[in-house]
Amino acid sequence: MLILIASLLSITISSVALAAGGDSVILRKTYSGNIDYVAVGSSLRDQPNAVDTCSFFSPVSSSVTVNIPVGATILDAYLYFAGSADIGPLYHSSQIDLADQTALTLNGVSISTTAGFNDTDFQNLTGLGSGFVDFFGARRDVSDIVTGAGAYTLAGMVVHTEAQNRPTTGTCLGAWSLVVIYEDVSISNIRVINLFDGFQSFKNSTFDLQPRNFVVDTGTPTGKMTHMTYEGDEQLTSAGETFEIQVGSGSFVAKINGLNPVDNQYNSTVTGPDVFDTTTSYGFDLDTYDISSDLLGQSNQFDATTRYNSGNDLVLLMAEIISVDNKALADIEITLNDVGLFLENTVNSSQYILSVQNNGDGTDSVSAGFATGYVHVYDDLPAGISIDSLADITAPGWDCSGTVLGADQLRCTY
After folding, report:
1. pLDDT digits (tens, 9 = 90+) for 283-308
2. Are 253 and 299 in contact (CB under 8 A)?
3. d(C-alpha 358, C-alpha 371), whole Å
4. What is the 3 state secondary structure string of the chain?
5. Are strands 105-106 and 73-85 parallel, antiparallel or unpaired?
6. Is the sign of the CA dihedral 97, 98, 100, 106 positive or negative?
7. What per-residue confidence (pLDDT) applies to 73?
8. Which of the chain's ends, N or C, has fewer CB atoms near its CB within 10 Å?
9. Tens digits of residue pLDDT in 317-331
10. Are 7 and 379 in contact, with CB atoms under 8 Å apart?
11. 61: buried, middle or exposed (CB in 10 Å: 19+, 13-18, 0-12)?
12. How far, in Å, CA of 236 to CA of 238, rounded?
């Protein structure tokens, strides 16, 4: 028998390998509270495509400035980076990939070539750029290095270039970015931030991401979003090279600005309110857009769609960050327990209990705070535990009619 006292939605998503390697961009983490984020980045190339597509700063390094308010508390700081590789190797005397980044530093502090806790080594993208180009990419937690506002310098990246016996394709990459999520008591609005990441290539194709885990605030909610991409070429303009967003029941809206015109979204620019706009981030795009107008009129909506379209331009998406003013949050606490032993070939011999406590709206003490609305419980039961009928669910006050018995998927609303 399954007894439902209360529950909170919990979803686990695994990384999916793509045909040419890489990793699907997925929702990695959701933050909530009096929070904001800043995304800054830079290319390590020093010439535009029209001059030299494979020219890098010597020594290979570049700097960015992180601007966060005085007194803000950094919750997470992530370094994202990617570069041209030679997997095999096919053209160089030895393979060039993430393992070769032994000299990589951020403000003089070494960046590990292997993923630790809260890090990711993305799968290499291979056989792109007319079949001759490979790429490596990674995410590193640098919260111990990025401790406040200031200048940050990345140095020491090793990349594969056309000078190393690779056929000429006009495709060379070396770039990086910092994404910093912080808490600031001066922010009066409750916000939800979604952080998506992966290492996904697209060309002559379209795909969507699904920002979620928020409820758009009433009145005039504000928001912003950022996409981080590589290999967008400034000289390639093709119909349909766009970035669009749809919030709730609203229409899809193409996001553009002075440096990202219609049909040339991925064009080696860094733009937005957090950075100085530049057209010299060769092979790297980091574009931040105000989405407040897209949120207007969508109060109480709880999802969005971001749509990436590319024409003849090969583009690599590594991250998307979106921030939305949220309705007052309910502090919902969940515990899962079993009572008795789940023995093979037994019926109703034990109980699987999902318990939820509503701790209030986060604006007062637990005893004084309150939160109202619906709680939706989605839980796929552990292997070996099945629900034979809805009668097996004891849940006073809950509507569990949406439960999928054959798949042992609990679906309840309170």
Report:
1. 999 999 999 999 999 999 999 999 99
2. no
3. 7
4. CEEECCCCCCCCCCCCECCCECEEEEEEEEEEECEEEEEEEEECECCCCCCCCCCECCCCEEEEEECCCCCCEEEEEEEEEEEEEECCCCCCCCCECHHHCCCCEECCEECCCCCCCCCEEEEEEEEECCCCEEEEEEEEECCCCCCCCEEEEEECCCCCCHHHCCCCCCCCCEEEEEEEEEECCCCCCCEEEEEEEEEEEECCEEEEECCCCCCECCCCCCEEEEEEEECCCCCCCCCCCCEEEEECCCCCEECCECCECCCCCCCCCEECCCCCCECCCCCEEEEEEECHHHHCCCCCCCCEEEEEEECCCCEEEEEEEEEEEECCCCCEEEEEEEECCCCCCCCCCCEEEEEEEECCCCCCCCCCCCCCCCCEEEEECCCCCCCCCHHHEECCCCECCCCECCCCEEEEEC
5. unpaired
6. positive
7. 97
8. N
9. 999 999 999 988 776
10. yes
11. middle
12. 6
CB neighbour burial string for 314-345, b if at least 16 within 10 angstroms, e if fewer: bbbbbbbbbbbbbbbbbebebeeeeeeeeeee
Place of tokens 């200048």: 151
Q: Which two tokens stand for residue 404?
A: 């999928």
- Going 154 to 156 to 159 to 163, the CA torsion angle's sign is positive
When pLDDT is cut at 50, 70 and 90, the band that residue 397 belongs to is: confident
